[in-house]
Design goal:
Blueprint lengths: L20 E7 L2 E2 L3 E3 L11 H5 L2 E3 L2 E5 L5 E4 L1 H14 L7 H14 L12 E10 L12 E10 L10 E5 L16 H5 L2 H9 L4 E3 L16 E5 L5 E4 L8 H13 L4 E4 L11 E6 L3 E10 L2 E4 L9 H14 L10 E3 L2
Parallel strand pairs: 9-10, 9-15, 12-13
Antiparallel strand pairs: 1-2, 1-3, 1-8, 4-7, 5-6, 5-7, 6-17, 7-8, 11-12, 11-14, 14-15, 15-16
Helix pairs in contact: 2-3
Bound molecules: pyridoxal-5'-phosphate and 2-OXO-4-methylpentanoic acid.
Length: 341
């Protein structure tokens, strides 16, 4: 299989058209068999529920070329299950989980020429998504839906790769208690756009969102969960019902405990304690683990002891072990790696 002529080492996190995408339509209460198509456009009613009332959710995962030349993806069953949760919350029909995983595999294989080579620093990002497609004008769910999966080769989410980031505590809230923060709904990202543009204009890479009820506890960023390392080497991650249950974060907690022998804690994390942590990282499919060097709280700078030059030692070990598992250099726990080819 001849790979596309792409400068893998220098691509950022952007959209690039690839050859095929998966499309399945839901009508009269059932999903059709689905197909791979070359058509990268979507035609829907001007009054489609997704356009009027944002009835849409999505997922994100990656395909990797392993050291021994296989193409794999990482825990796609968890993306299927999280998409089910998103669909139920948004009154959308569930795309069966086994079919979701099969469609991911089919679409990756159909775009094999775009799967970045081992060691290139790039990966193939996979974006499953669903939306209400028929006309709805009263506020109610659609009756017809489209489920699609496209792929696009990507490099690091944050410019500068593994350089520590400076982030700010946001004055905007991302999610309400009992709201939709724990699902991957497009609406959560729409309302974060003003906050992220504001942060970028002020020179910050990301926002740290706090809990909307008390604004004393750390939630997550616009696209990743937090991990903190205490000065005595414990891995701490915020517990909250209004953050996305990151598959990367859940995996890293297992890696920390079972592979690195570290103590792990999922608990409420207060803004007050930020100054006491040794390291901080953002974790997610796109972010992998991106180190944070500085958190700015309304002008007050909290500089992590790991500094602004490189990843802290524990975050680095977590990063190396997780990416080692994903790229086939380190044996994975049972069921984590789905071999595509
Ligand atoms: N939090 C938010 C808001 C996200 O958009 C993402 C990305 O998917 C994550 C966390 C990380 O989740 P995952 O590790 O499953 O990619
Ligand atoms: C992902 O990590 O897959 C996401 O969906 C995050 C998004 C901000 C790109």
């Amino acid at each position: 299989m001849e790979k596309k002529n792409i400068d893998w080492a220098n691509i950022g996190f952007g959209y690039q058209d690839t050859d095929k995408r998966f499309v399945s339509n839901y009508k009269n209460g059932a999903w059709d068999e689905g197909t791979l198509t070359s058509d990268n456009t979507v035609t829907i009613s001007e009054c489609a529920c997704v356009l009027q009332y944002a009835q849409t959710c999505f997922e994100g995962l990656k395909a990797y070329t392993t050291e021994d030349g296989h193409i794999v993806c990482f825990r796609p069953d968890l993306n299927a299950s999280r998409m089910k949760d998103s669909c139920l919350r948004l009154e959308m029909p569930v795309f069966p989980e086994d079919r979701f995983v099969q469609a991911v595999k089919d679409v990756v294989l159909a775009n094999e020429a775009y799967v970045p080579p081992y060691g290139s620093g790039a990966t193939l990002y996979i974006r499953p998504y669903m939306f209400g497609s028929n006309a709805v004008i009263g506020v109610k769910p659609a009756d017809e839906y489209q489920f699609r999966i496209f792929t696009t080769p990507v490099g690091p989410y944050f410019k500068g790769g593994a350089k520590p980031l400076t982030i700010k505590i946001s004055d905007f809230d991302r999610a309400a208690p009992h709201g939709t923060g724990d699902i991957k709904a497009g609406l959560n990202y729409a309302m974060s756009l003003h906050a992220i543009v504001t942060a970028h204009n002020e020179g910050y890479a990301e926002n740290m969102y706090l809990d909307a009820a008390t604004r004393t506890k750390v939630e997550e960023t616009g696209g990743a969960n937090f991990l903190f390392i205490t000065k005595d080497g414990k891995v701490v991650t915020p517990k909250s019902n209004s953050i996305l249950p990151s598959i990367t974060r859940r995996s890293l907690m297992v890696v920390a405990k079972d592979y690195l022998g570290l103590e792990v804690e999922e608990r409420e994390v207060y803004v007050e304690e930020l100054k006491d942590f040794a390291e901080c990282g953002l974790c997610g499919t796109a972010a992998v683990i991106s180190p944070v060097g500085k958190i700015v709280d309304h002008g007050k700078e909290i500089v992590l002891p790991s500094g602004m030059d490189e990843m802290g030692p524990t975050i680095k070990k977590l990063y190396d072990t997780l990416t080692g598992i994903q790229m086939g250099r380190i044996e994975a726990p049972d069921g984590w790696i789905e071999v595509i080819k």
